[in-house]
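Q: Here's a chain of 541 amino acids. Please give me its 3D structure as tokens.
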Amino acid sequence: MSKNLNIWFFLSLTISLFVLVPILTVFSGFFDETSNYYEILKNTFLIEYIFNSFILLISVLIFTFLLGTGSAYLVSFYTFPLSNFFKWSLILSFAVPPYIYAYSLTAFFENYGTAYSILKGLFGAGDYNKSIPKFDGMFGAIMSITFSLYAYVYILARASFLYQSQNLIDLGKNLGFSKFKSFYKIILPAARPAIVAGLSLVAMETLAEFGAVDFFSINTLTTGIYNSWIAFDDLAFANRLSFFLLLFIFVLFILENLSRKKAKYHFNIKSGFKQKEKFKLSRGKSLLAFIFCFFIFFMSFLFPLSQMLYWTIKFPENFFDLPTMNLLINTLYLVTLSSFVLIIFSLISNYGNRVSNNKILNIFSTLSISGYAIPGVILAIAFITFIAWFDENMVKSLGLFSIKKMFIGSILGLVIVYFIRFYSLAFNGIKSGYEKINISVDESSYLLGYSKRKTFTNIHIPFLRNSLLFIAILVSLEIIRELPITLILRPFNFETFATTAYISASEDLLEAAAVPSLFLILIAAFFIIISSKYILRDNEK
């Protein structure tokens, strides 16, 4: 038994240390000597980077909270026209990355863009450009990120609302609370941990966003990090900027923990759990609820989808010139391989933590999941730096062949950094599933003569199949959407739908970017529809 325990402990520890290496590389370079670019930027644009990142973060958090929580509350507690449709369709915003939403905004509202063409078709020739609003700059970035990420808050808030007891609602009635006061005083506080979890994901994604802010020429910490490496080859300064970026996240977490220090998120109800009833809204309120949910659905999914489809139809030559099958194979190859690696090693790591119950291992495991909080561009650069250092100081000193080509500009290196970046999603997802398996199940298995390996394969994995499916879909979506890591580490002439769309847009060829963007949206939407229907069916049981 101790032998098996040592093996699982070793495997879990090895995985955690492997993930930690590039993360620690980021922090180890914080105090390295930088170029003169640091002094120049510190005295010029650094404050602008920090200020823009702060404004972007706070604005996105406010709007995602309002959209995500509001829509989740409506579909969870009330029935109105298409409420059953909205409960899963509102998740489709995951299919539209912020940078593709940014392309859609620009293409629609730019001079002589789609809005101009619509007005010209309806009312004839005219100078419509003056009356068409321009969604660019900071407002465009806020709008793009908000409508792309609000579903993080929606899906977690809805899950929390779904399992709230009718007793809580009855409690508000007994106290004489209005529906609004019951929501504010009882329902919302009970769902606060889930909402905060969603907002935390939004915060990390916002601060790590590169494509949309770069497209709108917004100087943030992320673009500064990218430029400090690409333009000035100064990794140390990139690490310093990343520190400021991570500081935003840590400050938010601290403030949230302090704010809920005395809060109570559960209620001791002696009568037990009572199935929540949905209320049918009056005609006027039903209409308002429908308009609110449809507005979010339209703006987050139908609008960018329609814009990309419009450009594709208007310029069909871009469709025929696109190496669609090659891009599809490349995208699905990365998704399949990376998801498989993430799930397998996250399973092993979680089980190692479970059977070992070792404090040191728990510490390393906790540290290893911080990769998601670090922007992809930083992880990619840190990975390249570590491989270059290891190759120069370890491999070549032993007289061996260089390993740079094996890891830099290769599928292997790309999958490794994907693994580091999204390890926390897979690890935490499986961990939450494991929390539903009582330790007595393991003890009973051992008494029946099962080894730890057999318990893992024959009992745990079948029990975790629902969690594994959800994680596979979630990780696949993240990899399909991921841009900076793929841009930096992909092999030569290896393109995906995401990189092809970005390259076209960066060259001001929005009509050419529409076709790969459309395929990316449709593939992501396919994954989302499958997962959302499965999850909803499971919840309703």
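Q: Can you summarize the key feature?
A: The longest strand covers residues 78-79.
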